């Protein structure tokens, strides 16, 4: 249970002054739904009002605070003419300029003959000074209240800056005093203030320095975030370590038979990765290994051979895929190979019900069925294994840590292999897995031809269609991907449906459509028809994004390519170029393209190297956003910027390891404080792990 002291922070933003139901939606979009999110809404800039020049020395175009005497109100008689208030100090004059002014209000705030402090942007036209709509007007005694550094926040339409600031200030007021959770030595060495002080300092700026991600308060908050991340990982990992592993040694017989049936020879990369996996499985500890390989690098066969190793050792192996389509796809690839060597393999998805499912479950439980491929259905509670030795999780980023572990928990000392096509830099890897061993497939299978990638504006669609007709006449199979943007799935779906309709007019009946809202059976039937060559064109939303394998498909058309991330486009393109035939990728874009979009598409034209693309992606997005979280499955950070806080990550990892070693249940005084940290950063699943022992 979350400690009561944190409750005010986990209240809805509607509990903040000035935030009603309507504004709450805007605040939620901007910062998040809770008071703590508002307290953590970071300023993106500042306005320095400390500059207090005499009028004679005031610079044009700069923000300044001036103390002036009100000389004269110059009313406008024409609504398009502004209302001016003529003011002076001992050195010169300035006009305060108001459009659509309310006279009574101006007479009250700027009474004739009185002195007022005003702050805003001063413009200079020749000798004349102007200030259009001053941001602040106060009596001279209150000068100090406006002569400050004001934070500027990322905004959203409909939410006034003043309202947001008030809400933030109120949220900051509610921060409770919490015990320090960071190691005393680190706090001292870095000269960090406490969490509350740091969060306040981030908002109460003194100058540009505090805006920097390298300022002590920002560093402290970044460290808090990274520590919570690393601690959560360390807790889950230590729980798994406590369960002993076991040595899993196969004799190689089944593997040799499978390799003998392959229509190709393994690449050196595949051999090496497999060697590492086999050696790891033979160790008496539990394997936690990532198999990293670009799309099309041939991870699936490596997975199968690792599974065969488990079977040789007398155990079972399971392959978990994130979607139905992928599970079926894997099954379709693996089953013929298994059949050829007389090894049974089964498929289990959410669609298997009743007797068929019961039959699979009972044979899994008895250990009679050795190999299985499936979806989430595999980790259901009533699924039991006789002796599960190896769990493989494909495209892991679709899964949470818990699900990943849930499959491994279905046996004793299960070895875990995670497969990903996302090239992840080492530091980022740490944030997703803590410590993990990595095998990389660095080379593509031989005989692959480069994919010819072109960018074409949407208005030249008809030319593309002509090209496709010729390609189809030569037997090409074509993917046509329409974007799915979260904001409005209905509209996107309509676009895909419409495209399908139009393409049918041009190309006839042999055009299919798959999307996420379809009934699974319908979708499968269409995919199967495409794979079998009964369809020439497969129109799809991004459901085909990951892992689909139809080697005969040689053309990929992506509509509105500018709306996709670089990594995602790379994945999509990877659906073609899988066979011996020459492949093409057409990126249709809506002109005009922004600079970044242009650069992105250019990179795709230049290279097919996933690692290079990932790096460029990183560069183009800037440090703050690193590989789009959605695509990579890596945790997104709010305070931490791994491009600059890499050393903090390393420190956090070491500290987390030490904490878990010394106080695995977080029972000590500092342990209690660390629990607060985990709650603050919503690492509830780690806390659950703690309590479940
Ligand atoms: P991914 O790493 O994207 O999962 P797959 O395992 O789906 O890649 O393999 C892509 C294609 O390459 C498949 O059609 C597979 O049969 C083929 N393939 C795998 N290994 C080799 C190899 N060593 N030589 C030739 N083709 C291979
Ligand atoms: Mg794959």
Structure overview:
With 693 residues, this protein is of the alpha/beta class. The chain has 5 domains: 4-46 and 156-208, no CATH class; 50-146, Beta Barrel (OB fold (Dihydrolipoamide Acetyltransferase, E2P)); 218-242 and 648-691, no CATH class; 253-441, P-loop containing nucleotide triphosphate hydrolases (Rossmann fold, 3-Layer(aba) Sandwich); 451-607, Rossmann fold. The chain contains 25 helices and 21 strands. The strands form 4 sheets. A 7-stranded parallel sheet has the order 11-12-10-13-14-9-15, with helices on both faces. A 6-stranded parallel sheet has the order 16-21-20-17-19-18, with helices on both faces. It has a 5-stranded mixed β-barrel with strand order 2-3-4-6-5. A hairpin with a 2-residue loop joins β5 (115-125) and β6 (128-132). α7 (195-203) crosses α8 (216-242) and α10 runs parallel beside α11. The longest helix has 27 residues, at 216-242. The model is unreliable at 622-633 (pLDDT under 50). Bound molecules: adenosine-5'-diphosphate (ADP) and magnesium ion. Residues 299-300, 547 line the site of magnesium ion.
